[in-house]
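hey so u asked for the seq, here:
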Amino acid sequence: MNSDSDLQIAGDILAVQHLLQPAREHPSTVAEFIGLAREIATDRPQWEHLVQYDATTRWYHRLRTGPGYEVWLLSWLPGQGSGRHGHGASTGIMTVLEGELAERTDSRRRPLVAGSQQVLAPGHVHHVVNDSIEGAVSLHVYFPGLTEMPMHATTADTAARSDTADAVPA
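ran it, structure tokens below
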């Protein structure tokens, strides 16, 4: 049997448009939200001109919203942190765009360098801080959109290096 025969029998799938899955207008799975974050991260002209730094608090800007999700852009000067918090019922995708951040939980400290990406499950409690000497920029996707950010008592590990916690995305 000829190797071309299978193609002749099945036809070219790309030529039969009704067999293709339609592209989703908005993401709906964790994998699609990770893809959205990666797509935005690589499209620097979309976000780079928006970044600002604020000496008194972390700067944040809602970059995009869609049905059931929102995307935030944050900047972090050295020493700025989120305080120990959760994200309510929302799942989060955190992507470091520039610089370096550190995530602290009760059990670990994890460095997050540019390009790092992390999925934050509902109920995940952490403290994100810029321990470096350079500014940092991060992208946060929340689904469903962030409706609460409960603050939690600071543990001894995070208390020594924590700044005031404002209830904004992190």
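The longest strand covers residues 59-66. Helices lie at 4-10, 30-42, 44-47, 156-159.
lmk if thats what u needed
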